[in-house]
Amino acid sequence: MIIKGFCHPPLSSERREAELDCDQTGQVTLRCGEHIVMVAVAELKISPPLGTLPARIDFADGWQFKAVQENELADWVRHNAVQPQRWVHRLERNWLAIVASAALVAVLCLGAYRYGIPAASHMLTRLLPQAVPVYLGEHVLETLDDHMLAPSQLDAQEQWQIQDRFALLQDNLPPLPFELNIVFRSWPHGPNAFALSDGTVIVLDSLVEMATTPAELDSILLHEVGHVYHQHVMESVVQSALISVATALIVGDSSGMADMLTSTGVFVASSGYSRDAEREADQFAAEQMRKNYGTTEPMAAMFNRFMEHYGDSELPEWLQSHPELEQRIQALK
Ligand SMILES: [Zn+2]
């Protein structure tokens, strides 16, 4: 559609013949002698006719257009240009729409945090070369040995017995992403066991002493093997890295990334996983207990003994999500 009219150069009352070419795609071309400019409707400042004032179009570079047949331009303005502005204007005034939009954005962010990042971590973990979890596992064990753990006080024969028995048990397990390596350490803060990213399972002397039967000890070791099977350590590390990278991108600081990865590895090993990860490790252990011992009773017995022994105070890794512990024991039945 072409609207005949005239235009004024920037800051001038000079009047020149001009035409405005409005196409279907929202592009508007102003032709005024040698001055030809093409812009999107959205970039124009359009003043609808007001009283005796004609409809007028202001271009960003200062040119103004008015139509000969004012109603032509007025109609076009009414039908095309004003609509989006009116919609935005209405939205701006509608606080409910703004609150709803903000809530939608918040839900999308939470959704990405709750499901998107874990899903991405799950996938990325499986794309990592083996060398990464192996390096991290060795590095974390060294760090734990330097700062937290002491050599085991169990006699060598007892250690071998447990390792041998577990090696037999291992033959019945589904294929694991890493070879298991059971190591013994002592630590004064109560019975515990933790898996590292490379398949190392650290067993504390106090856990061995707490178990009254081999099946009871194995149930906790199998829980740790569940973490190895599902690669929870690496998933948690990748997840923390993703969150840190996302934070660094938003905040604009990416220093200390390598330190952060190591400390995350230590943190994950010593403080536990998400509830979902604990549930998965429990399920793995329960399934293997049923298969190898025909019962999950020894596992429930260990959970209960630990509850009695420690009450509400600091819980070890395999009992991390304490509020759900009752449910976890129920789930074993
Ligand atoms: Zn666990």
UniProtKB/TrEMBL annotation:
DUF7092 domain: residues covered: 5-78
Cofactors required: Zn(2+)
Cofactor stoichiometry and binding remark: Binds 1 zinc ion per subunit.
Ranges of residues in domain Peptidase M48: 172-333
Keyword Metal-binding listed: yes
Keywords per UniProt: Hydrolase, Metal-binding, Metalloprotease, Protease, Zinc
GO biological process, one term: proteolysis involved in protein catabolic process
One MF annotation (Gene Ontology) recorded for this entry: metalloendopeptidase activity
Entry annotated with the keyword Hydrolase: yes
InterPro entries: DUF7092 (IPR055518), Mito/Outer_Membr_Metalloprot (IPR051156), Peptidase_M48 (IPR001915)
GO cellular component: membrane
Family, similarity comment: Belongs to the peptidase M48 family.
Protein name in UniProt: M48 family metalloprotease
Lineage: Bacteria, Pseudomonadati, Pseudomonadota, Gammaproteobacteria, Vibrionales
